[in-house]
Amino acid sequence: xxxxxxxxxxxxxxxxxxxATDGVDLDVxxxxxxxxxxxxGAGKTTLIAQLSGDLAPDAGTIRFAGEDVTALPAxxxxxxGFARSFQVTSIFREFSxxxxxxxxxxxxxxxxxxxxxxxxxxxxxxxxxxxxxxxVGLAARADVEAGALAHGEQRQLEIAMALATRPRLxxxxxxxxxxxxxxxxRMVALxxxxxxxxxxxxxxxxxxVVFALxxxxxxxxxxxxxxxxxxxxxxxxxxxxxxxxxxEVRA
Length: 251
Prior knowledge:
Elements: E1 6-15, E2 18-28, E3 33-37, H1 44-52, E4 59-64, E5 67-68, H2 74-79, E6 82-85, H3 97-108, H4 116-119, H5 123-135, H6 151-163, E7 169-173, H7 181-194, E8 199-203, H8 207-213, E9 216-221, E10 224-229, H9 231-235, H10 238-250
Parallel strand pairs: 3-8, 3-9, 6-7, 7-8
Antiparallel strand pairs: 1-2, 1-4, 4-5, 9-10
């Protein structure tokens, strides 16, 4: 069996008396979409933050493409192919959609933002940025100020900024949060186009989205992974239904 692209062992993070992740083990194969689900407070966002390098674990290891990256900060992980989206959209609202993606292209190339005013018209930045905007369905919105985009479009823009860094691993934290039905469906359609071409770790509460996208699902409760398996196996797992899915059915 090939070595997984991402391998996590014994990951722990404590905030005072709260254990947010408690010995998490995960393997994610190249090109796989792994969804991480669980009730509020299960530790999902803390896990994503540790994977991205935004939060240092107290214990455990994170290996990526065979390299131990546990001690690497977020910028160095980005250079190795990590890209993250957040629960709350993280964009430059006063810049156009095109400018936002061009900034991501520039950052991936290792250039300082100090030269942004001079570089923003460079074809080497603008052309790949336009291509990524077209990929996520925002070609016609390229010149619109990001803050004026609809919420769903802003989330699409954030995905575009992640894709502009040419990632091997996408860490997506609730990509359909706050969306209406139509916006959510567009996001699912977009993420389907990325399946197989990128390795994805997806945290999401919307179970329709999870079952539409995931190759496998890991279930977290109180900081621990209690089950990992194919969607149908998770759907039929009695422990999972008691801990999470069953609660949702009764709500």
